[in-house]
Design brief:
By secondary structure, the protein is an alpha/beta fold. The chain has one domain: Rossmann fold (3-Layer(aba) Sandwich), CATH 3.40.50.300. It is 41% helix and 23% strand. The chain has a five-stranded parallel beta sheet, with helices on both faces. Strands 4-3-6-5 form a four-stranded mixed beta sheet. Helix 5 packs antiparallel against helix 6. The chain is globular and about 45 Å long. The mean pLDDT is 93. The structure holds guanosine-5'-monophosphate. The site of guanosine-5'-monophosphate has 14 residues, from strand 5, strand 6 and helix 4.
Length: 195
């Protein structure tokens, strides 16, 4: 079976990693597919089951843990579990794709440790904690309480940046998108696309 590479993007919530991952997925020459995680949290806004996440109950999530179905999982926030199902990565490899992950810092490092030879682990760094707060407030998807919970976690997560293969500073989005594209293309040994 084709076993592609694993491209992990991790960062504190609000750093812009999801925007970067979406941009990379649009670059056909990179041949990437998104690893849809399972989560026990409720869907937000326009999120769809099977596209953004596999939304499952806490009970089902715990059953998957017991069955050892996960490549990695984390209780990212209290009672909000997130995890990568082994079957998801196998499904995407079977399609001949490299797999890209938008997951939290601990999960990202876990994947890197499991597959050191085939993982590019990238940390996306926000300009500052204050800027993170502003971005999360603008997004208007979380309550004040939840925003504070995410900010508290962000400080701890920032300290793990040196453990990643590469740190991308997301101070200017266009620059961060370009840098990410070049980094991934380089890692995958993909020719630059014609402009
Ligand atoms: P959100 O609730 O904003 O969608 O995600 C919260 C955090 O969980 C984000 O940092 C996101 O990247 C992370 N996350 C999403 N899926 C996974 C996963 O499968 N495993 C881990 N460890 N974290 C995940």
């Amino acid at each position: 079976m084709f076993e592609g590479k694993l491209i992990v993007f991790s960062a504190p919530s609000g750093s812009g990693k999801t925007t970067i991952v979406r941009h990379l997925l649009k670059q056909e020459h990179l041949n990437l597919a998104f690893s849809v995680s399972a989560t026990s949290r409720e869907p937000r806004g326009t999120e769809q089951h099977g596209k953004d996440y596999y939304f499952i109950s806490l009970k089902d999530f715990k059953q998957h843990i017991k069955n050892e179905d996960f490549l990695e999982w984390e209780e990212v926030y209290r009672d909000n579990f997130y995890g990568t199902l082994k079957s998801e990565v196998e499904r995407l490899w079977a399609q001949g794709k490299h797999v890209i992950f938008d997951i939290d810092v601990a999960g990202g490092l876990r994947i890197k440790r499991k597959f050191p030879e085939k993982t590019l682990a990238v940390f996306v760094k926000p300009p500052s904690i204050d800027e993170l707060k502003i971005r999360l407030k603008k997004r208007k998807t979380e309550s004040e309480d939840k925003i504070n919970m995410r900010i508290a976690k962000a400080s701890v997560e920032l300290a793990t940046a040196p453990q990643f293969d590469h740190v991308i500073k997301n101070y200017d989005l266009q620059a961060a998108l370009k840098e990410s594209e070049e980094l991934v293309a380089n890692y995958l040994n993909v020719e630059k696309k014609e402009v």
